[in-house]
Amino acid sequence: MSIFVLITMRSFVLTNKALIIKQPILLQKRRIELVDIEAIEERKLSINSSHDFRDFNVYRGKQTYIKRSNEKDIKITSFETRNYHSFIAHVQNERRRFKWCLDDDKLCKLDRSWSGYGWMAFLLLMACALLYSLLNR
């Protein structure tokens, strides 16, 4: 799982005309024009784990779907995205005809809250440990 997370790691760049999605390890780059985005839908995200017939909630956050015409939706989660709330607010603001003045202090407070970075660090550590153990055989 942690190697999969490392390989599919994405980077998002927002310009005033496009959203650029980069996957540096897979050497892929995708450009999505903001006029091609039909809708942005935000939902709750819950990551659960089970052991011995018990369910544990590992992470609660948000998940955003960027819907495009005749193409597959893009899924962005607060678990995998740094400064998620600021990023989504700016994407939605760029799509508006009349721009809003965003309160960056409130967005920074939302971004500074616990956002799954501990789990990402744990997965990265596990991936490194797995690679180390495989290379030492």
UniProtKB/TrEMBL annotation:
Protein keywords: Membrane, Transmembrane, Transmembrane helix
Domain of life: Bacteria
TM regions (residue ranges): 116-135
Protein's name according to its UniProt entry: Uncharacterized protein
Protein's organism: Hymenobacter crusticola
